[in-house]
Every structure is written in structure tokens, then in C-alpha cells.
Amino acid sequence: MSPSVAPTQRNKIYHAVLPLHGISLVFAVSGLSGDLAYRWLRKERDALAAHRERLEIELEGKNRVLEAERLEEEQEIVARMKGERKRCLDYEQSKLQEKIEWQKFVSCTSRPNVMFESEITTYVTMVREEKSDRESMESAIEKCKAAEEVVGDLLELYCKACEEGDVIRQDWCMHYIAEIRELEIELIDAATAHLLLYIEKQEANTYSQVYLQWGNAIDALKVGFWGHLQSKGFRAKSIEHSKIQIGLDLPKAIQMQSAGHCIGVRSLYTTFDSAQGKDPQMGIGGMIRVDLLSIPPFSKKVKGWTIRQVPAPGKELMKLPYPNTEHTTASTAIAAPCKIDYKVPAHVLVSKSPVVSWWDASLERWSTEGISEITWEEDTRKISFFTARLASFSITQERHIDLPYKHWNMRPCDDLTVELTVQAARYELRFMISEDGLRLKGPQMPELLDVMFEAGSGEAGGLSGPSGRRPRVRSPATLLNELRECGLNLMPKNSDADQLEGYTPKHPETQAVGTMNTFQAEQRLPVQRIQDDIGARMTTLENKMRTMQSARRLDAFVPGVRPGLPVSPQARDGREINPTATGLNSKRLGTIRLKSSVASHNNSLVPGEPADPIPGTSSHGKWLGLRGTTESQANQMLGSLAQDLDELGENPTLPVETSEPRGDSEESEGSVQDQTTSARGETATIPDGDGSESPQDSDTSYNAKNTLSEYNQDNISARAYSDLSEIAAYYDIASSVHNKDLPAERALVRIRENELHEVFNPMDPDGDADYQALMFFPDKCCFVQSLEGISPCREAMAPGHVTHSSLYLCFDKHPSPGPAHAEQLQRLEVTTSTVRFVEAVRQTMQLMHLLSFV
Which part of the chain is the CASC1 C-terminal domain (predicted)? Predict the structure, then answer.
């Protein structure tokens, strides 16, 4: 039959079955034989691609099973080592705790023991019950100072909970801190109510005005009051509380909107605010609360009796709103702004263009609405602004203003002492970590001197600050919390990552895995679960191959065969191909026999009859495969088929299994592409007819890269911090630029041995090869081939290395150990003499979230 056949002849379709395995197939064709050969080669290529994928899945499954067995064996070793580390730490901490308890005992303090909730609640109840309606402001301030001492104890307990990763204890501490500070405001309000009730006893000037101040400029709590004892005659007034360095400029509109009232204005400054942790913005430099108050009617004397109106319970202190929307008229619709200025503490870092906000209690967030003309005087440290309302004000900044970290590195500089350098968004900070804790080494800024050095004088190991001040060493959480009060938030939360583009926390905050006080060995991937997973993937692949086998029923014009019926066994044994009709190179093909070299005990696949599973695998997925063919042979066959397809050229229109003519060639190619997708759910790369690689879209939701995270949701960062802290005394540890691009279940750092305490620049491209990349997973770690100067990250394991349950075992089972291998391992073991230093390093890294925000 010639290539140009009549349409009626093209609509006459014959059906032939070409088995996939273990046969030699040769068939005679005419007319469209070239088309049929082309389609057969495409189908054969798809089958071989699926076979290669099956081999890859088999190899991956075998490696994963071996890895899981290895990790299970190492689990006992890791648990024993971590358990010994915990025992050493408990012993050292018990000795420190005994000293702390003895110091508290000899101090004879009456403060409650904040370790016990009952004592805290008892203290709060007693203070409330002792609160009197005749409380003086001096007495209230003294009680507030005593309450702040209890808050200090709670903050110490909070910092310890942060170091241990005890989230429940952290929330518990913050709850009682907020309750006690709310009690302090109640005490000040009660004293203010008593002051207003007996205001006539206070000395007033010739203009019937009262000026009162409590505290000093450097106090953590200070109060200023101004009162006008007449309901008329008020003019715009400038109030200056010079002792506490607070100033107010009140417009005349205040009196107009408070008609019928004698008014007073109270200015209350505290170093704390009422909004901690409730808003993406954070207040720095304390909070100033400005309240417009109504002075109750004065007492009267009648026949020797003093008659005084006593306010109803709960209404002792009447705060007037400004602006007052209830009494607003057309002339006062736009309230005149008030000017407020106060001095910012010397330890607070303030930007050149600060932002002042007021606290919206109804929405529990900071707002800048109505605030204008903000002025910052750096020399006098005074900030002034105009506001259209009276409320609680503070300088605010974003909590993540110092995030992300550009890079960080840690290097040993002395025995059991390391220097940590962190390049934050605004400053480069340098810390020294030792067994005593953490201290700030730089930058040398006036605002940070009180954090860096003790208040006293003297030498400390040859290290001294200004005027001989000793370096100040605190526990990691305590020092970082003090820096947060200065305006440097280096204790981020996972929620801060929502404000940063492209950053994902490496571990959920709800987990406390990895802390030494709550350490437990992680659960490994069971071998059975891996087998079930691989079996499920093989089932998916099996179904695809069955679909391809059914699709191999090619339509052919075979004389003597009815349309839609399979060919005879003789046709299945083999038919001659006419090279001229097919268009193939006759010199290369000649009279050829297209045959499958993948014969196995499953000689052919019949839909509905599963192949025998591989011995030792899960029965949940029947492992279908082309037996007897290796991966290299499959790749070679694919290459040969690609050459055949290349000679055949474009895929012509082919008939289908129906009596209707086949559609366009795009439909045919699309069906082939659908059959070559990867069962892993990833983009599969299959050689095209021209030998190039083309990605095929996935049609499943499986992702092999996320397999481990689906089984194990351990805290990967805490695991990494625990392992890295054990080598910090002998290795440089540096961040990696590739860490940000890795998913949440993987973290990447670089390490370099540095026994001689030398100084290296981890950002130097010439020294990139001196560092070894180390990758952490939820349940393992390994050395990888990643280099800073090569993108994307090379995640393949370093030659000869395999994954292990801990970093120590990666060193222990190094494929090429050095001559001092045993001595090196002995140094890395945690003992009672090194456990405090190791724990300080771990706590510092975990509190700063060095792997999540770099």
C-alpha cells in the first residue's frame, strides 16, 4: 500500500498486540508501517524509562533500609552519650543551685520564692488586700519597687526556662509578670485617687495650680502631676516636671472638652510597657502614660463638720478622654494636639528617625495615628512629639529590625572559651562564651557599656573596661534579654520569620526537643515503614507500566485480521519489517528484529496479573520489574531507542484503538509524556528523541525529599545546636549562604579544625575549601560537598561518608581517620569539666536561632 491511501482505507483499523518482555517481534507493514514502528519505539522507550525508575526506587529503598538499620544501632550509643552529658550537667548545676539558695538564705529576703506558684499568688493577694484607699504616692511607689524585685526573680526564672526550652514555664512566668505589673499600676491609680480626693490639702500657686513630682530622672518608675483647682480660667499651659524630666504642653481645648470639671494631668513613666509580645512592633525606652483626670468636688465645712463626697467603688479615679467625642462640637471637631517630651534612658539604642506610637488597648496593637513632629535630641536624649490624643506612648520599632543575620561564625580563642561574631542587620556584635556564661565584647557603644561591664571597678583576668570596670558575664538568656531592653532583639521567635521574606524557622517553637534537661533519644525511621513506603511507590509504578502495556496494542493494517482483535501467536512470534516502508536506515537496520532484551521470569505483563514481588520486600506494593536488566543496560537501551526515534523524525498521525481516525500528534505525544512521569512525585528527566533531557511534570503528590520530615518532626535546630556545642572548643563553626534555601527539615553549617586558636576569615573565598560543610536532618547528620562559591547547594554526601545519628559518630566513623584520631575523639567527649561550657554554647546558639535567621 502506498503512503497516500484513501480516507476510507485509513479508517479501516486492525489491532495487534506487542508483548513487552522476553519476545522477539518482527512484523510486516505497509502504508503506515513507519508510523507504527515510530510509535512502538516510543512505547518501548517509555517502558525502559519506567524500568530504570524501578531500579532507582529499588536502590533507594535498599539504601534507606540500610541507613535506618544503621541509625537504629547508633541510637543506643547516642542515648548513652547524651545521658552521660545530662548527668554531668545536672551535677554541675546542682552545685551552682546550692550556692544560689545559700545566698538567698543569708540575704534574709521576704520576697516569695517564685519557683512555687502558691507563693506568687499569695503575694499578689496580700498586696491587693493591703491596698488602702488612703494610700500615699510615696507608699505606693515603694510597694512598686518591691514588686519589681519579684518581677526580677520571675525574669530570672523566665530566662532559665528559655535556656532549657521550657515553653510552658516561659508562658507561666510572663503571665505572672504581667499580673504583678498590672498590680503596680493599680497601686499608682489608688494613690492618685486618694491624692485627688484630698487635693485641697496640697499647696497651690497663685493661679490655683498644683505641681507634684515623685522619683528622679533615672528611676524605673516616676510620677508627675499637675492640677488646676478651678473649672474656669484655664489657658494653654506648658508643664515642666524638671526633677523627672517630663514635659507637657496642654492646649486650651482640653478645658473646653472637659467643661464643668476641675482637671488634673498625671504623667506616669515606667521602664516596662503593657504590650510585650502582643504586636509585631516592640516598645523600647519604657512607656509614658499621660492621663487627663477629673478632680472630684472639694470638701465643705458645715458647723465644724467636714463634708466630703466619697466616689462609688470602682469610680475613685475618673479618667477623661481626649479628644472627648461625646462633647465635640463643630468648633472643636479637630482637637488641638498636645506636646509631650521625656528623657530616654541612657542604655537604649535609638535610631536617628525614631517612631513614637500609642497603645490601642481595644485592638492590642501599637498605632501611629495622630502623632506628628517627632524630634530626637541625641545630646540630651530627649524625645518630643505632638499627639492628638492622650494615651500610653512609647518609642517603637519592628521586632525583627536586627534580622536576618547576614552571617555568623564561632572560633575558639582560649581553653573552653570561644568568640561568637554575629553580623546582624544593623550592627556587628561580638560575644565571648565560657563556662561562666556569656558576655558582650562589642560593639563599643555608650548605650551598651552597662551591659558589657560591671558597675564596680577592678581587674578580671587582665580584661578591663573603662575606668577598670570588670567585664560583665551573665547567663546567655539574661544577657540577651538585657540587650532586648536596649533595643537589640537577638532572641527572635518563630513568628518573626513571617515578617521576613524567604525565611522559614528550622524548628517549631512548640517543641522542646534537644535541650539537655529534657533530652530523649529521637525515634528513628522503622525499617518496616520504609519498606511500606517503597512498596507503595512501586505499586504506583506498576499501575503505570500496566497502562503502558495496554497502550502497546498498536493499530496496524494487517491483512486477514479483523479490526480490534489481537494477532495470532505466529504474528506475536515475529514478522519481517520492511526497512524501506518504515523509513529507517537500511544499512543500520537491514532486516532487523525488534526485540526486548529484558526477559525475566515475568515474560509478559497481562493487565490484572501482578508481577512477583521482590523477596524480602513489603507486600503492600508488588514490586514490578523487568528482571535481568541492570540500570546501565536500561540506559543503553534508552539511548539506542532515542537514535531510532531521531531517524524516524516527527511523529506522524497514528490510528487509535477505535473505529474513528486518530486526532493530532500532540495528543499522542501527550499520552506518552503522561506515562513517563516519575512515581516519586518529582519532575522526572527522560531522554527525548534528540538525546536531550526534558522534564516531565509529576502526576502524584509524593515528594521523596520530604519523606524523613513526614515520619519525624523532631526539632532539627536543637539537635544541631547540641551537636555543634560539643566541638566548639576545637573547631571554627560558620554559617552557610545555602542554609536559607534549604527546607525546614535541613540545616547547613561549615566547620574547620582550629586547635591552635588561629584567626580565619570565614567569608574569604580563597579559604572556602578549608571548611567542611555539615548538614543536619531531623534524625541524622553527615558531611556534604557544598561550597559557598558554588550554587545551588551541593547536597551530595562527601566521598566515603554516610549519615550518622550524631556529629560525634561522624568523626568516630570517618572513612579516613588521621593519626591522632583517638585523641581527637577523646577531646570531643563531654565531661564534668567541659559540660558547663558546652551547655553555654548550646544555649547561646539556640536562643539566637542562628540556623533559622541566616
Answer: 364-439
Task: Write phi, then psi, for 738 (nearest 5 degrees).
Answer: -85, -10
Give the integer Cα–Cα distance in Å for 424 and 442: 13
**β 417-423/262-270 pair status:** unpaired
Q: Single out the residue of 614, 290, 349, 329 nearest to residue 487, CA to CA.
A: 349
Long-range contacts made by residues 175-181, C-beta under 8 angstroms, separation at least 24?
Answer: 176/114, 176/117, 176/120, 176/124, 177/151, 178/274, 178/276, 179/124, 180/124, 180/147, 180/150, 180/151, 180/154, 181/147, 181/151, 181/270, 181/272, 181/274
What would the grid cell of residue 3 be? 503512503
3-state DSSP percent of the chain in helix, strand and coil, to 5: 35, 20, 45
**Can you say how many angstroms the Cα of residue 454 is from the centroid of all Cα atoms in its chain?**
35
pLDDT given at position 165: 87
* Residue matched to cell numbers 544555649: 843
CA atoms within 13 Å, Cβ hemisphere of 722: 31
Q: Average pLDDT, stretch 540-562?
A: 52
Nearest alpha-carbon partner for 752 in 776, 726, 771: 771
CB count, 10 Å around CB of 563?
16
User: Which one-letter amino acid corresponds to residue 810?
Assistant: C
Task: State the Cα–Cα distance between residues 224 and 184, nearest whole angstrom.
Answer: 16
Q: How far is CA 765 from the centre of its chain?
A: 28
DSSP code string of 213-273: EES-TT-SEEEEEEEE--SS----EEEEETTTTEEEEE-THHHHTTTT-EEEEEEEEESS-
Q: Are 81 and 806 in contact (CB under 8 A)?
A: yes
Terminal-to-terminal C-alpha distance of the chain? 70
What is the C-alpha separation between 709 and 744, in angstroms, rounded? 9
Residue 528 β-bridge partners: none
Other CB atoms within a 10 A radius of the CB of residue 430 amount to 15
Q: Count CB atoms within 10 A of the CB of residue 330.
A: 6
Candidates 357, 346, 343, 132; CA nearest to 224 is: 343
| Cell numbers linked to 161 | 526556662
Sign of CA dihedral 56, 57, 62, 67: positive
Kindly provide the residue ranges of all beta strands, DSSP E only, lying in 710-764, ordered along the sequence. Answer: 731-735, 747-753
Q: How far apart are CA 81 and CA 629, in angstroms?
A: 46
Q: Cell numbers of 82, please?
A: 547524651
Q: What is the DSSP letter of 487?
A: T
β-strand partners of 387? 338, 371
Tell me the mean pLDDT in the region 393-420: 94
Instruction: Supply angle C-alpha 115, 121, 124, rounded to 5.
Output: 120
Give the dihedral of Cα atoms 691, 693, 697, 702; nearest 10 deg. 110
What confidence score (pLDDT) does residue 518 get?
A: 37
Q: How far apart are alpha carbons 628 and 477 in whole angstroms?
A: 62
The answer, yes or no, to whether residue 372 has pLDDT greater than 90, is yes
Q: What percent of the chain has pLDDT over 70?
A: 68
Where along the chain do the CATH 2.60.220.50 domains lie?
Answer: 203-301+311-398
CA–CA separation, 169 and 164 (whole Å): 10
CATH code given to domain 203-301+311-398: 2.60.220.50
Across-strand partners of 410? Answer: 420, 733
**Cell numbers linked to 148:** 519589681
**Using an 8 Å Cβ cutoff, are 609 and 595 in contact?**
no
Q: Do residues 22 and 33 touch, judged by C-beta distance below 8 A?
A: no
Q: Look at residue 25 and tell me whether its pLDDT is greater than 50.
A: no
- In contact, 271 and 486? CB cutoff 8 Å: no
Q: What is the pLDDT of residue 532?
A: 67
One-letter amino acid for residue 346 of the chain: A
pLDDT at 67: 87
Report the pLDDT averaged over residues 571-578. 39
Q: Compute the average pLDDT of residues 339-353.
A: 94
* Residue that the C-alpha cell 529503598 belongs to: 61
Residue 497 is classified by DSSP as G
Cβ burial of 107 (10 Å; 0-12, 13-18, 19+) is exposed
